[in-house]
Amino acid sequence: MQVVNGQYQGLTPQEQQSKLLAQLDALGEVGVNTVFFQVRPEADALYKSSLEPWSRYLTGRQGAAPTVAWDPLQFMIDACHARGMELHAWINPFRAKLKGLPMGELSPRHPYWSHPERFVAYDGLLLFDPGLQENRDYICSVAADIVRRYDVDGLHIDDYFYPYPAAGQEFADDHTFASHRRGFTDKADWRRDNVNLFIEQLYRTVRETKPWVKFGVSPFGIYHNGTTSLVNGVPGSATAGLQNYDDLYADVLLWIREGWVDYVVPQLYWEIGHKSADYVQLLSWWAQHVDGRHLYIGQDLERSLRATDIRNTHTNQLANKFRMQRGWSSVDGYCWWYADAVRSALATPAGRSYVCAVAPDTPALQPTMLWIDDKAPGAVSRPAVITTDDGPVLCWTAPTFRYEADRPVRYVVYRFANGETVNLDDPTHICGITDEPFFNLSDLQGTGKQTFVVTALDRLHNESKGTRFKVRL
Known about the structure:
- The structure is a single chain.
- The chain is of the alpha/beta class.
- The protein folds into two domains: 13-358, Alpha-Beta Barrel (TIM Barrel); 381-472, Immunoglobulins (Immunoglobulin-like), CATH 2.60.40.
- The chain has helices at 13-29, 56-59, 72-82, 133-149, 174-179, 187-209, 226-232, 244-248, 252-258, 279-289, 301-306, 318-325, 339-346, 349-358, and strands at residues 34-40, 86-91, 95-97, 119-122, 125-128, 154-157, 214-217, 263-264, 294-300, 333-337, 381-388, 391-397, 410-417, 430-434, 438-440, 449-457, 467-472.
- The protein has a seven-stranded parallel sheet.
- β8 (263-264), α10 and β9 form a beta-alpha-beta unit.
- α1 (13-29) crosses α13 (339-346) and α13 crosses α14.
């Protein structure tokens, strides 16, 4: 859920909250279980921060506090958790000012004013110089502050490292290269190493602050073009576009191999058959090159709905993209770009039909990350069924835990017919997911004897053994 498109500017806090909730409700309707919420677009904050100023994308002027005291990040954490969703705080690490904001409108609390020598102006942007350890330390301190003070489930960064190249302009880091080269003679290798050092440091910062919090990246969709792979030996795809490795200095495959990220979400926003960046080629490439960490495919909903399907010119490409994506066992999920596009699509009969056709039919639990935690929580105990004016309610006692990562944060309720074999691997039996140690059965259809099974999920979604309830509805 981005903010830099200005969708929340000019709204009252109440209107902003209503819009956020409407988007979350739309996402929940199509089975989304994790939300990336942009909270730091340009060294600012959509949360209460002692380090950086309030964002202009919230209040209209950088540094101006909301007219009504509220914290958007905390609001979104509460709203997502109430819906059984994870909330990942999305920050833009090196970007300090976007185009269109005059330098004179930077808040006095903006970090630029304390150390202007640590920044580089480029194509209307202002960026932290990635070659300076002081900048890498500072950005990691901001990330640690978010992770320490908020109950986020993950920290997320996108595709902005060194800036996207602008014709005829050079990123002015000659002085930094000369004084901080660390033995490098090739500036491109040095820039990649700067970003590598940052990614490793940020990953370790998150782990040391709260070991159960996930860290992920949504890189640009092309790692490296195959035409240049023949020259430098770097694996590349059959594409001819801008490249992570060469242009943004982001060696994403190295981060995966070294275990410095928990998931990647390559932005595969192009069409099937695109002449420079074919979705089919890129999907195949990423599916074959990501190993040991989760791979989620970034999907541009609006672009997919506009593009004509090559196999059937009477429809769009959305269903075909999802069919291909689900054909790869190495693909662990997908990510909609962007939240309001989902809400808008569901508001029309045609859009609703297309989106719901590819959405999961059953609730999807977040995949486990066994390299972080592979211990399942204990089972719930003291199962009981109580009768209330609203109908029967399942109640249980949460399992105890020693470490925070093992805390039960949600419970999955499965339903089986009387005498039916209990199979917790079949998601069609999930009738609810709750963060409370009880579940109201009044909205369920059907009568007679039923078997309900409740499991506990810890912070990394390891699932406990089931506890059975016998109920007559």
